[in-house]
Amino acid sequence: MAPDREPTYGNWRKPVSPGIGRLGLAGTLMLMAGLVVITMIAMVSPKASALGIVVLAVVMLPLVIQDAQGRTALQSLTARFNWWWGRSQGWHLYRSGPLSVTSRGSCRLPGLLAQSRLVEGRDSYGRPFALVVIPSTRHYTVVFDCNAEGAALVDQSQVNAWVAHWGQWLASLSYEPGLVAASVTIETAPDTGSRLKEEVYANLDPNAPDLARAALEEIVWNYPVGSARVSTRIAVTYAALPHPGGKRRDQESMVREIGMRIPGLISGLEMTGAGAARPMTADQLTRAVRIAYDPTAQSSMETSKDQELRWEDAGPVAAQESWDHYIHDSGHSITWGMSEAPRGEVLSNVMTGLVAPHHDIDRKRVTFLFRPHDPASAARIVERDRRDSRFRLDGNASAARNEIDVMKSDQSAIEEARGAGVTRFTILVTATVHSADQLPVAAAAIDTLAAPARLRLRRMYGAQASSFAAALPVGIVLPDHIQIPALVRESL
Hints:
Elements: H1 24-42, H2 46-64, H3 73-88, E1 93-95, E2 117-122, E3 128-134, E4 139-146, H4 156-173, E5 179-190, H5 194-202, H6 210-222, E6 228-239, H7 251-269, E7 277-279, H8 282-293, H9 298-303, E8 318-321, E9 326-328, E10 331-340, H10 352-355, E11 363-372, H11 375-392, H12 400-417, E12 423-433, H13 439-450, E13 456-459, H14 464-470, H15 486-491
Antiparallel strand pairs: 1-8, 2-3, 3-4, 4-6, 4-7, 5-6, 5-11, 8-9, 9-10, 10-12, 10-13, 11-12
Helix pairs in contact: 1-2, 11-12
């Protein structure tokens, strides 16, 4: 029998914006409008038109200058100004607890999650589940806790089947009514050994021989040393869209409708390698978020499982955002965002090193954010991208990268016509350590791990707090929180 051929994956497309050179659509429209105004001025005063040309050049220069990762000078200046303005207003500081004047004695989550709340419901099988509600965007998020099986000692044919079913599951999300986003969060953290201890003591026979009891005691105390726990959580976010009759759905109807869809979502994950998936309860999700903001609380959270924790107390007591890192209770974190996906073809294990535990990072969180297009808009997007990529192709003077873009856009359009789904995605990587002295070492470790994954990661300067929250499995859809027009956002 011939050995199984390991397939490759690629052709990730970042839609290009039609325009002149690096300007994009918005920049081209501004340039055209400026030229029209200068032409009209030149008909009256040639000297004034020369001044207008200088002004237009100064305005357009920030849109033309770009760094190595494609970020324009206008974006960098805007980020710097927003950071300066927020810092002058004190928005980078957060204090809660009994001495706070805003949280009323509780420890609410900061930033984008400040107004969030947690509601509970039961699915069609009677299992309890929690929903994270964000009122500003009217989003409802259910989180699944998965026991991912891993690819160690697994045949390549089985891995290929998992990847194929994962692609099918992602494509099926575009047919879910009201679904706006999904995310996969893989978190690695030190194992405290509490789960092993509970499992051993719960099954220990009081009449067991002394030698067996001593062996089990030694295993309980020595096995967790140096080991890591890997948690996989999948979050699915729905929007409270109106009914066909025009009435917007309320919280009760959203809980009921999402509860009916949970069994179908879980059944679709069974063949993806996610293992046994189950919806997280309110207490489980609250504890996971609480530990993310206060890593040293992990031991107390695992030993006090009988004590109920409220969502209003899941946030940090104190948090402070800096330009390039984020301090929250006992943790110091840095978050990176993907600026470019792998250009070439990759194998199915390309992310293994990035998501695996690392000895220089106390807690590491890798989050894949997905926003599927519905079938109607998917066809329109791939065809528009096909036209735009051909527009950038400029005969013999075109760069080889533009020619490759045309080939990729053609392939994407053909695959979409055959029934493939179209999904926007990005990756957030968060590294958390216990002291500020460990941050440079953790940053160097992430830079080392990003190279084998063939990812181009960029530190989220000036947005560390919001990026940290978006990397949590709580359903934050970042584009819905941006306060700039959609046309400018797409062109930038």
